[in-house]
Amino acid sequence: MDAEELRGWAARKMMYEDARWVYDIVGSAGVSSDLTAFAGLFLSHQFVRVAYEGATALRSSNPHVGIPEFAAGLSDQYAAVSARYRHATKLLDDNSKTLTEVLAELRAEIELHRQAFTGKTRRWLRWAETDLGLYLHGDDLLGATVPASFRLGLDVGGQTKHKTGEDLSAVTEECGGTLAYMCGATFVPDDPAPALDLRTVRIRSRDCRTDRYLAGKFEAKFPLELKMLLLLIEGDLNTSRLILPATSSGHRDAVLRAQTVTLIHSLTALQRIASMTGTTSSPGLIRLGELLDSPPVSRLTSPMGLLVRNRFVHYEMNDPRILPDLTKPLCGLVQQVFPGQTWQSLSRDVTDVTERAANLISHWSP
Question: How much is the pLDDT for 160?
Fold first, then answer.
C-alpha cells in the first residue's frame, strides 16, 4: 500500500469511526436515556460536523478517498447539512468573522427569541414569561436554546418552544442519511447494533428570562451577547467533560477527536474575548489570562496543536509528509503532525484544560 492509498484508508477509517459513534449515541439514547429528548440541543453541532466532513470526503476527486457511487446519492442531504455546518461553525471556528460581528449576530438572535416568546400573555402575567431554556446535568450547564438555535440556523420567528425542540431533533434526522452513507461507504460488514449504556445521563431543563438570568453572570460590564457566547462555551465544555465520556465505550478515538475540537474552538473564542476585554481588571478575567498563558493551552493552540485539530476535523489528508499508521490510536496522526506528543499526552492536556476552563466559566465571579 503506497502512502497516498494509506492516507485514503486512514480518512475512511476515521470517517467510519465518527459516523458509528454518532449512530451509537442516537440509537442507544432511544433505549434508556434522557439524551433521547435533548441530544439535538447540545450534540447536533457534533453530528453536523461529522456528516458534513464525511460528505465532503465522499465527494472528493481523490480516488483513494471519494466514492462516486455513494456521493451521487448525497445531493439532497448534503445541501441541508452544508447549510447547518456553516451556521454551526460561525461562532467558534470562523476566521472570516470578527468577534464584533459574531456578537452583533448573537445579539440579533437574542432579540428574535425575546420577540418570539415574550409579550404573548396578558400584561399582568408577562413577568412570568421566559425566552431562554437551560439544560443541565446536576448543576452543570450543558446547553441553552438561544445559542443552539443560532448555531444551527433555526428560524424561531412565531414558533413555540415545543416547535423549536422539534426542529432541534430534526437536525439529527437531517444528518442521518449522510451518516448512513458514511458507514456504508467504508464497506465494513455486520455493522453492530447501538450498544452504549447511557442510563447514567440525567438531564433536567429550566426556563428563564435571558436578561434576568445573565444579569448575575460574568462581568457586569459585559453585554448580553458576550455573556451568551460565554454561556455557549460553558455548555460545550461541560458536555465534553460530562456527557462525551459516557459515549466512549468502543469509540475512544471518535470521542477524543470531538473533545479536542471542542476545546480548541472554545480556547480560540476565549482568546478573542480576552483580547477584546483585557485580562487584568477582575478576578474572573485574571484567571482567564492565567489559563490562556498555561503550558497545556499554549500547546493546544500552537500551530502544531491547530494542525492536530485540522486532522481531527477534515478526513482527507493532502500533505505528502503525513504517513498514517492504521494500527495506532488516532491513526498515529498526533505524532505525525505534533512531534513529541502522543495520543496519551494529548488526552491528558484535553482533559485537564477542559476541566479547568469549564470550572472557570461556571464559577466566574461577577
Answer: 47
Whole-angstrom distance, CA of residue 109 vs CA of residue 119: 17
DSSP class of 220:
T
Cβ(300)–Cβ(349) under 8 Å?
yes
Residues composing the chain: 366
Q: How much is the pLDDT for 312?
A: 95
Task: List for the chain the helix, strand, coil content (%; round to 5).
Answer: 65, 5, 30
Q: What is the pLDDT of residue 1?
A: 74
Q: For the chain, where are the alpha helices, taking DSSP H only?
A: 3-32, 35-42, 44-58, 68-71, 75-89, 99-117, 145-151, 161-185, 210-215, 224-242, 252-277, 283-292, 295-300, 303-313, 333-337, 343-362
Which residues, in sequence order, are CB contacts of 325 under 8 Å at separation 6+? 331, 332
How much is the pLDDT for 163? Answer: 43
Predicted TM-score (pTM) of the model is: 0.90
Q: Which of 23-37, 217-231, 350-364 has the lowest mean pLDDT?
A: 23-37
Helices (H) and strands (E) in the chain, counts: 16, 3
Q: What phi and psi values does residue 222 have, to the nearest 5 degrees?
A: -70, 135
φ, ψ at 22 (rounded to 5°): -60, -45
Residue 286: predicted pLDDT: 92
Place of cell 460590564: 221
Q: Which of 198, 215, 223, 346 is nearest to 277 (CA)?
A: 223
Residue 224, pLDDT score: 94
Helix H or strand E encompassing 144: strand 140-144
Q: CA 108, 113, 115, 121: dihedral to nearest 10 degrees?
A: -160
More confident of the two residues 31 and 251: 251
Largest CA distance in the chain: 73
- Does position 139 have pLDDT exceeding 70, yes or no? yes
Count of beta carbons in the 10 Å neighbourhood of residue 335: 16
Extract the C-alpha cell encoding 213: 438570568
For residues 336 and 290, give the distance between their C-alpha atoms in angstroms, rounded to a whole number: 30
Relative orientation angle of helices 252-277 and 283-292, to the nearest 10 degrees: 130
At position 113, the amino acid (one-letter code) is H
